[in-house]
Amino acid sequence: MPNFKYKKLYTLLFLVVTIPSFYFSNTDSLINISNSLKDTARINAFVKIAGEYINVGEMDKAEKFLSKAHDENTIAKNKTSELYIALKNVFFNYKKSKFKLAYELGEEALPIAINLNHTSGIAECKMYMGMCAGRLGDFKKALEFYHQSLPLFESLKNVSMQMKLYSNIAGVYFDQLDFKMAIEYFKKTLYMAIRSNDNKVIGQTYNNIGSSLSNLKNDKEAKEYYLKAVKVNLLSNNKYNLGYNYMNLASCEIIEKNLEKAKEYNKEALKIFTDFKDPYSIVSCYCVDADIFIEEKKYKKAIEVLETCVTISEKTGSPLLMERTYKQMATAYELGGDLKRSVTYMKKYINTRDSIINDEIREEVTKKQLYYEFDKKSLSDSLEAESKQKYLSQELENNKRSASLQKNISLISLLSLLIVGVLAFYIYLGSQKNKQASKIIEEQKRIVERKNTEILDSISYAKRIQTAILPSNRNVKQYFKDSFILYKPKDIVAGDFYWMEPVNLPTANCILFAAADCTGHGVPGALVSVVCHNALNRSVREYGITEPGKILDKTKELVIAEFEKSEEEVLDGMDISLCLLDTKTKKLNWAGANNPLWIVRNGEIIEYKPDKQPIGKFEQAKSFTNHVIDLVKNDCIYIFTDGYQDQFGGEFAKKFKASKFKEVLLSVTEQPMEKQCTLIDKAFYDWKVDLEQVDDICIIGIRI
């Protein structure tokens, strides 16, 4: 049986995302701004919006705004806007893996940039054309364009674009299998990225160095770089780059024979690239799937996947993709026993490989690099020689003038003293003004610091007030001996709260208790929580209501009435899970607004679903449903807000979700309630690790 070797050339992540002059992280705000702009400013805003949508894979929306920009500029006829539209159109088609079309559009855009003498536009266009040429396998042309655009970006002091070009130049060496030279250029990129504190580029470059090391058979160190990249990209929420990290880690796991782990990684990568609608990267993921099927000896499945890869890669016109898929097809058919088709695809593979990797191309790539380095050195040498010649000529001229200058020394000295005196006077005045300005700045700094302290003190005092309205631990234990409350505000004060109220009914003593989640967190959430907490108290104490469903109806009525006092429409409100427990009869009344009730009984979770409406304004409002439940001894009741389930974390920075929360509860249900609280909290931190807590958390657990 042939020795199947994984070829990892497809694992490189190029740095191709442009950074527009004005960056808006919030596309919606840019759209709103564009509506108030006119003429050229409006057109340019449309182009920037299109760029934002391209960066997040929303290609349909990007096309819509590019079309808007083009239509409006047909009337405005602004040449600079025409250039911006043309460049964004090149990038748009590149991201859709239409490399040939993108290159042709670049050829049309370049003369526009040259006629406008638009240095940045010329550099950007040549960089795009280099990227397209590289994807189409013309590495000589790619390197030529990169070396033409690099000095332009250097003259503009555009460090971001310089990093991208260094990375793309490294990519040329990578594709020519010169991995050591590729690593040199990637390390240049990494050095600049670290100095610029650019986490996006740092994450990309860790991935690229890992890919180069992997192809040098240094798989252990490669995996370390991939994991570094994952950590950086998770912290910067860079999902597209994470896709490449996961795909590369899948390849590492295949080599280590951890196929289930490989499937998990590649599934996450494919999901990301599908969201971004990136055919090039999707094919790369399918190729990893084929690797897994081949390892599992499922050759027919591998061939089915690779047939799709061949179709897409031939459509993109990228010889790099075609080379990869042809090689895998040949291997799959050979291992599956179809030698005739294996030979056919092996021939295709060899022809494609020879078109992009041969001694002539490698020599030409090396020449291009040497010429570039020589041109830079020659320019430096010629400038130095010219400088020396000017210096010698100047010295000769100075000697001729020496006698004449000597006569004027006395006069110059006198004038110098006068000038120095005047300057000293003005410097003194300036220093006095600077001292005064420094005093003002220091005073303003003290004011800001004092205000910050006052604000923090106010919020901290608000926390004391909010804590005071929560049931004390002593009261909780008085009502429910075997219970816990896990309460973790995201900020100093919270929108979540828990509530308990003893109720004396004619037939029994009962306890009302609830876990509530008000709109927002921090100070806004805390303000809403005060209104909702007060409404709950009034519903029970003032109106004497004890049935949970009716309490929620009245609370909703009171909250809406409170907010309607404002001239502006207030849509804030509360989600809540509310219980009334008769501790003697073990009868539970429950109602929920968006938040459920879970009961663990005999190792299973019984879920009671809430009414899908909040405490607050709602178009399809209805009365809340009251559920009556008979409990049995050792039942565990859990009510909670959504903060625990919504926390991002884990290996793939995904939400914790209800299913995993249920697993945690089932794993701890035999423990005493206080121990459960500790274990549930630990599971939260193990999941979250270094990521920020996203919302307030409130969980109440009670054992019957």
Give an overview in words.
The protein is an alpha+beta fold and 704 residues long. Among the domains are: 9-158, Alpha Horseshoe (Serine Threonine Protein Phosphatase 5, Tetratricopeptide repeat); 401-469; 470-703, Phosphatase 2c, domain 1 (4-Layer Sandwich), CATH 3.60.40.10. It contains 24 helices and twelve strands. The chain has helices spanning 27-35, 39-55, 59-76, 79-95, 99-115, 119-135, 139-155, 159-175, 179-196, 199-215, 219-235, 239-255, 259-276, 279-295, 299-316, 319-335, 339-356, 359-407, 409-469, 473-479, 522-542, 548-563, 657-668, 673-688; strands at 483-488, 496-504, 509-518, 574-582, 587-593, 597-601, 604-608, 627-630, 636-640, 648-649, 654-655, 697-703. The strands form three sheets. The protein has a five-stranded antiparallel sheet with strand order 1-12-9-6-7, covered by helices on one side. A five-stranded antiparallel sheet has the order 2-3-4-5-8. Helix 8 runs antiparallel to helix 9 (179-196) and helix 9 runs antiparallel to helix 10 (199-215). The chain is globular and about 90 Å long. The relative contact order is 0.05.
What key attributes describe this structure?
704 residues, alpha+beta, Serine Threonine Protein Phosphatase 5, Tetratricopeptide repeat, Phosphatase 2c, domain 1, five-stranded antiparallel beta sheet, 24 helices, globular
Give me the count of strands: 12
By CATH, the topology of one domain is Phosphatase 2c, domain 1
Backbone shape: globular
Q: How many distinct helices?
A: 24
Would you tell me the structural class of the helices and strands? alpha+beta
Q: Which band does the percent of strand residues land in?
A: 5-15%
Approximate helicity band: 55-70%
State mean pLDDT (0 to 100 scale): 81
Cα-atom Rg, whole angstroms? Answer: 34 Å
Which CATH class of one domain applies here? Alpha Beta
Name of the CATH architecture of one domain = 4-Layer Sandwich
For the biggest sheet, the summary is: 5 strands, antiparallel
Name given to the CATH homologous superfamily of one domain: PPM-type phosphatase domain
> Which consecutive residue ranges, at least 5 long each, have pLDDT under 50?
1-10, 14-25, 370-396, 398-410
